[in-house]
UniProtKB/TrEMBL annotation:
Residues 265-289 are annotated as: Disordered. Keywords: RNA-binding. Residues 305-378 form the RRM domain. Gene3D superfamilies: 3.30.70.330, NagB/RpiA/CoA transferase-like. It comes from Galeopterus variegatus (Malayan flying lemur). InterPro entries: FTHF_cligase, FTHF_cligase-like_sf, MTHFSD_RRM, NagB/RpiA_transferase-like, Nucleotide-bd_a/b_plait_sf, RBD_domain_sf, RRM_dom. This is Methenyltetrahydrofolate synthase domain-containing protein.
């Protein structure tokens, strides 16, 4: 598949998701939008996995918990290798080790490889376990034959890999595999890649095995300047890794550490002298912009312009909108999320920034719905 001209990462994600649904190659859970998409033929694509030399040599393999990699997890267990899966959203640690019951049959192993089995037959692995991962399997929304990868946009796979580097679980030579449908293999403009993006060495599809020979360096550890205080609060293990690296003398300054994060409700972690938003400006909700980047507000004046975003899908999540805003280069200082009304308000520093954001967001879609974007009513009245 060829990407559209002048695309962003989010454009590519939407193109893949739309195509997989329209061509009925998508598989449960559906719709595949905002997911690592499952597809018909995923188990067939995974049959290439145990034939890889990297698989045969590996003793410990980390596999993401998404549906398209279920068969890959089964093959690891069936080969009596150690299977590690990331904990959901990294909230309770980095890895869980899957331990099947003694004498488990293939049917039991298949159950262990499901999301339910991961919950039922796993135990957390601590940072002090000195685990060494020989092979990594990640999910992808899109991937190029050069080994460049786009995930679903939340950044967890990239962060997981960076954390594994920081704790010494992987090295520069640790192979990375992804399992996708053939339609997910496409050219990806190099300009979209960032230093923290993980690349892949092998791409497995239902019809072929692609050895990428990727020469682009993989992440060499956690880029702390891209980690927000919000992310630190959500992922406790990051705090432990940061303390370790700080003691080792590394620069662990967080993203915009001199700014103030928005806290829950309409309250802020700013000094008491900080200016509150005007009364006719919608108050910010607890959910601030960006998991890995964070939504921050300066201690100076509040934003002087607010943008209305309407026609949000009823099943849309605030993370979907935040990701789309980042990809369009229109991230606000903060946003107000009003799901029952299917709308949101974006708060910018000044009217010029708001007008620029409106231009950038024209034609923006979440799923199949085109969003309405305009100055908020009280701004238009002025």
């Amino acid at each position: 598949m060829e990407p559209r001209a002048g695309v962003s990462k989010q454009d590519i994600r939407e193109q893949i998701w739309d195509y997989m649904e329209s061509q009925n190659v998508a598989d449960f859970p559906r719709p595949v939008h905002h997911r690592i998409p499952n597809f018909k033929g995923a188990s067939h694509a995974a049959e290439h996995f145990p034939r890889l030399q990297a698989f045969k040599m590996a003793r410990t393999i980390k596999v993401n918990p998404d549906a398209p990699q279920k068969s890959a997890r089964f093959f690891v267990l069936n080969s009596k290798k150690t299977l590690l899966v990331p904990t959901p959203r990294l909230r309770t640690g980095l890895f869980n080790k899957i331990t099947p019951p003694p004498g488990a049959t293939k049917d039991i192993l298949r159950k262990c490889a499901t999301s339910q089995g991961v919950r039922s037959y796993s135990a957390p692995i601590g940072l002090d376990s000195r685990v060494h991962v020989d092979l990594v399997v990640v999910g992808s929304v899109a991937v190029s034959e050069k080994g460049w990868r786009i995930g679903k946009g939340e950044g967890y796979a990239d962060l997981e890999y960076a954390m594994m580097v920081s704790m010494g679980a992987v090295s520069e030579g640790t192979p990375v595999v992804t399992i996708v449908h053939d339609c997910q293999v496409m050219d990806i403009p190099e300009v979209l890649l960032e230093d923290h993006d993980i690349t892949v060495d092998y791409i497995l599809t239902p019809t072929r095995v692609i050895t990428t020979g990727c020469e682009r360096p993989k992440p060499t550890g956690i880029t702390w300047s891209k980690i927000s205080h919000e992310m630190m609060e959500k992922i406790p293990i990051l705090r432990t890794l940061r303390d370790q690296e700080k003691q080792a003398g590394k620069d662990v300054t967080l993203q915009n550490e001199h700014w103030n994060l928005l806290e829950s409700g309409s309250q802020r972690a700013a000094p008491t002298s900080a200016v509150r938003p005007p009364q006719d400006t919608p108050q910010p909700e607890a959910d601030s912009m960006g998991a890995a980047r964070g939504c921050l507000q300066r201690e100076e004046a509040p934003p002087a312009a607010t943008v209305y975003v309407g026609n949000l899908p009823r099943d849309a999540r605030v993370s979907d909108l935040k990701r789309a805003l980042r990809d369009r280069g229109a991230a606000p200082l903060w946003l107000t999320w009003q799901a029952p009304q299917c709308r949101a308000f974006l708060h910018y520093q000044d009217p010029a920034s708001a007008q620029q954001a409106i231009s950038c967001l024209q034609g923006l879609r979440l799923g199949t719905d085109t969003l309405r974007v305009a100055l908020a009513r009280h701004q238009r009245d002025k």
